[in-house]
Specification:
This protein has about 375 residues and is mostly helical. The protein folds into 2 domains: about 90 residues, no CATH class; about 270 residues, no CATH class. Helix content is about 80%, strand content about 0%. The chain is built from 16 helices and no strands. The protein starts with a helix and ends with a helix. About 5% of the residues have low confidence.
Length: about 375
């Protein structure tokens, strides 16, 4: 038995290290690669079991493809597999991003590096706009949700904390759809979601950089972030750029570009940010903090997920959260676009990238590579 278990652990480690090195293209691409490896090639799970896991990760905050890797590890090899699957998927990307962050800090002011990122940033804006165009019709399903999206956009422009907008939107949809008179009875679809509110209240103050503050910030983000990984931009800009002034707009765009450009989870953007703020130790702290909630949520949510999926309250709550997520994505795209689209050729590059994404569905990784090349050649 120990030998069979060790064999399964080695298989898990090999698979997710490989995916961590080669899984470009964001969560949807990651999930497709996992389905091919786990269902079709290795037959560790049936198609129905795999679809159930996708449903589970959609109901809890955090990076969906990383949480799927953690779930697969648990189903294949128990608690040790849970840890190993997630760590092996995250580790290659985190190491690659750390190396790029070192190069950015060491050579970031050299013309070649600046030119490279000058071409990548407009493509990032196009990628986010493309995601909004695809997700918008799915989330904004009626007139009430359209009004809610407009209200969320207005509140975001007024500087309201993203967590207030997310949870407030979810609760409003629950109250409006189900006419619940006692909000205390509402079910929040995450055992840790409530933990974000105390930290949320403290997030607005201007704070000098400290490792403890960095850890708590990324722990908060990993604990409450619903929806696409692109929503990470809203949280990063609100606190790290707007409130604490730890990053500039351009540094944030560079961090997002690296997260998109590299394989593995988009959340390794936190690794890059940690490194440029405080070196290797801060990179490690930020990485552990943003991914730790995913391991905890997967560990505790398994038995609860089937009931949450059947709950009308949870379904209504997630409808509101999804709409607010898209609203925040739209606002942050406009704000970052002002920093990225600074002349005629960057606007043209963003427009061309958007056309290729929407009409021809070209992999965003190739467009980001092409954008970097164009920036290097033209500047």
């Amino acid at each position: 038995m120990p030998s069979a278990e060790n064999h399964r652990l080695r298989e898990l480690a090999g698979l997710f290290l490989k995916l961590g090195l080669t899984a470009f293209g964001g969560p949807a691409a990651h999930i497709s690669l996992m389905e091919n490896e786990v269902v079709r090639r290795r037959q560790w799970l049936t198609q129905a079991e795999f679809l159930d896991l996708i449903g589970m990760v959609s109901l809890i905050p955090g990076p969906s493809s990383t949480e799927l890797a953690i779930f697969i590890g648990y189903r294949r090899a128990g608690w040790r597999g849970l840890v190993l699957g997630g760590v092996c998927f995250i580790l290659p990307a985190a190491l690659i991003v750390t190396a790029l962050a070192w190069a950015y800090v060491r050579f970031g002011k050299l013309p070649a590096v600046a030119e490279l990122f000058h071409g990548i940033k407009p493509v990032i804006i196009a990628v986010v706009v493309q995601a909004l165009c695809k997700l918008g019709p799915i989330a904004v399903k009626n007139r009430w949700l359209t009004l809610l999206a407009m209200a969320a956009i207005t509140l975001s422009f007024c500087g309201v904390n993203p967590l207030v907008i997310l949870f407030g939107s979810g609760l409003l949809v629950v109250l409006g759809r189900l006419r619940v008179r006692r909000p205390a009875l509402l079910i929040v679809p995450s055992p840790m979601a409530g933990a974000g509110f105390p930290m949320m209240l403290a997030a607005g103050a201007v704070t000098p950089f400290k490792l403890g503050s960095l850890f708590l910030f990324f722990l908060k983000v990993g604990s409450v972030l619903f929806g696409s990984g692109y929503l990470l931009l809203a949280f990063l800009r609100t606190d790290l750029v707007g409130h604490w002034h730890w990053l500039t707009e351009n540094q944030l765009l560079d961090a997002v570009a690296v997260g998109q450009f590299t394989p593995g989870p988009v959340f390794t953007t936190a690794t890059f940010i940690g490194y440029i703020l405080g070196g290797p130790s801060a990179a490690l702290v930020a990485t552990v903090a943003i991914f730790l909630p995913s391991f905890l949520l997967v560990a505790v949510s398994g038995p609860l997920i089937p009931r949450l999926r059947r709950s009308r309250v949870t379904g209504a709550f997630l409808d509101g959260v999804n709409v607010a997520s898209l609203a925040l994505m739209a606002v942050v795209t406009w704000q970052l676009g002002r920093a990225a689209l600074v002349d005629g050729w960057t606007v043209s590059l963003a427009g061309l990238a958007g056309l290729l994404l929407l009409r021809y569905q070209i992999n965003s990784t190739w467009l980001i590579l092409a954008g970097g090349l164009v920036g290097w050649l033209l500047d």
